[in-house]
Amino acid sequence: MAKLLVNLSSGKDNIDKATVAFVVANAGIAGGQETAVFLTVEAVLLAQQGFADDIHAAGFKPLKELLDSFVAGGGMIWVCPPCATVRSVTEDKLIPGAVLAGGARLVEFLSHGAGSVSY
Fold first, then answer.
1. What is residue 57's three-state secondary structure?
2. How far is it, in rounded angstroms, from Cα 80 to Cα 40?
3. How far is CA 70 from the centre of its chain?
4. Which domains does the chain have, with CATH numbers?
5. What's the CA gap between 2 and 19, in Å, rounded?
6. What integer best gives the mean pLDDT of the chain?
7. Are 71 and 49 contacting, i.e. CB atoms less than 8 angstroms apart?
8. In a 3-state reduction of DSSP, which class is residue 99?
9. Backbone Cα Rg of the chain
10. pLDDT tens-digit series, residues 8-48
11. Contacts of 58 (CB under 8 A, 6+ apart)
């Protein structure tokens, strides 16, 4: 199975980037690819319960809907542990489908042939 990694560093600071990243991630799932989204910097807040509920970039589905579709389709949301710690995002606050996963997991996924795109 082909693999796709979407690296996202933006959240409410750039809702267009955050939204497009999950549009692309959902396209990966729809295309039959094993897809992971790696959230870093401000994007880790998107994995916190309730944070993305009111994000809606013009011309796109609401981010909450895109997140839910991604997870329901088998997508993986990986949250950078140090970035989460700095922003007080703890494991017990994560949305379903999101897990703390560091660089080692990311490098392993890439080493198995994942294509990568960053937002």
1. coil
2. 5
3. 9
4. 3-118 (3.40.1260.10)
5. 23
6. 97
7. no
8. strand
9. 13
10. 999 999 999 999 999 999 999 999 999 999 999 999 999 99
11. none
